[in-house]
Model the fold of this input.
Amino acid sequence: MADTPTRPIRTGVWYLAWRLPLILLTAMFVHVMMASWIWPDGHLHLKGVLAQDMSRIQALETIDKAGPLAAHWASGAYRWMFEETGFNGMIRAFSQPAGVNPPDTEVRKLVVHFWPEIQAAMYSVQILGERMAVLFLTLPLFLVATLIAVSDGWAGRWLRRAHGGRESAFLYHRLKRSVFLTIVLLWTVWFIIPVSMDPRAVIFPFVILFAVTVRFTIGYFKKYF
Done:
């Protein structure tokens, strides 16, 4: 009887590469929908979240340049999304309807109809930009946690080999997948939840979880090369 084919466990850089844009688009969609259907103050709620996020980041005493960097990434995200694409120029042109040709008139009607959603998207883009900057600033923390986890995991693997311990391909492959899944979960929580969050309360637990999964992944690495 032929073996039943198993679904390969996908990991690696490409596993993350297409998930980050998907999560960012999902986050913007959630923010806009919440502003349109849930919050009475609409896009002003996202404006408040942005202001609270910036206040939390500027209050981080351990990183002096966190506030300016977050503000720069927020404005950069807005610039690339709405100014470099010419969307803001189109908005300014539509603010004076005189002389607008018929096709542009229909586009202008759509812009006017969805203007609250557009305003929410403008603030959402800035929120995603400043939160991306925070994750960028935590890369050294992830690097240190990875080095410690790899060192401890390699020592555990050596002890397992020295004492003839059993290896487990089942655990190894699923722990390896958990390493990347931890990163995806962090992105999901950090970007999509449309409330102001303390970076230390959100990111540090995922750093610990990431380090634990890396440690046991290395520990269960195959016995022989």
DSSP finds ten helices and no strands in the chain. Confidence is low (pLDDT under 50) at residues 1-5. The two ends are 31 Å apart (CA to CA).
